[in-house]
Write a structure and sequence with these properties.
The radius of gyration is 16 Å and the shape is globular. It starts with a strand and ends in an 8-residue tail after the last strand. A hairpin with a 6-residue loop joins strand 2 (28-30) and strand 3 (37-39). The protein has a 10-stranded mixed beta sheet with strand order 1-8-2-3-7-4-6-5-9-10, with helices on both faces. 29% of the residues lie in helices and 20% in strands. The chain is an alpha/beta fold. The chain has a single domain (2-194), classed as Alpha-Beta Complex (DHBP synthase).
């Protein structure tokens, strides 16, 4: 199902439709401030496993990333030191993924890596979904190395490719082509491990 949601003023009824699907363990494709992403309720292990299988992600070797609505509840899911919190506050919402040590409230699938990527995108649609859901949303880009760029940026083509897997594809306008900047905050000095759209303000 392809549904249109406007980022400037997300329709509460459409947001509720998406949230209802996520609560039922469904899979949703949504816009962010970088690439379109595929996700589910990050605390629903079965749904997380389904996405990992499809994308060929091994949770024991790859960092899983989750989207939070804002910084207020990040400490539920990740251990954040005061300097790192200040760094995140300067740069979020924005096109960054901050790698942090996990806390015990994330399901076991996140624990083998002992780290989790935290995103707070500058996109009203997904932040509103997370806010209404009350849980973070798993985030992995729809991008495939074999994809033509249109299949990662045009919501109608994304829907065409993914409609048999995703319960809902959100049309939030054309997506970007540059991924988030990944910042590893698990050591004393934060390190950029992938240059992306975000330019880090220290």
């Amino acid at each position: 199902m392809l549904i249109k949601i406007y980022p400037d003023n997300p329709n509460p009824r459409e947001i509720e439709r998406v949230v209802s699907v996520l609560r039922d363990g469904g899979i949703v494709i949504y816009p962010t401030d970088t690439l379109y992403a595929i996700g589910c309720d990050a605390l629903n292990v079965r749904a997380v496993e389904k996405i990992c299988d499809l994308k060929g992600i091994n949770p024991q070797k790859h960092n899983l990333s989750i989207i939070c609505n804002d910084l207020s509840n990040i400490s539920e899911y990740a251990k954040v030191s005061t300097p790192v919190f200040k760094l995140m506050k300067k740069n979020l919402p924005g096109p960054f993924t901050f790698i942090l040590p996990t806390t015990s409230s994330l399901p076991k699938i996140y624990k083998s890596k002992k780290t989790v990527g935290i995103r707070v995108p500058d996109n009203n649609i997904i932040r509103e979904i997370v806010k209404q859901l009350g849980n973070p949303v798993l985030s992995t880009s729809v991008k495939d190395k074999n994809d033509e760029v249109e299949y990662t940026t045009d919501p109608e083509l994304i829907h065409e490719k993914w409609e048999n897997f995703a319960d809902i594809v959100i049309d939030g306008g054309y997506g970007g082509i540059e991924p988030s900047t990944v910042v590893d905050c698990t050591t004393d000095e934060p390190q950029i491990i992938r240059e992306g759209k975000g330019i880090l303000i220290l």
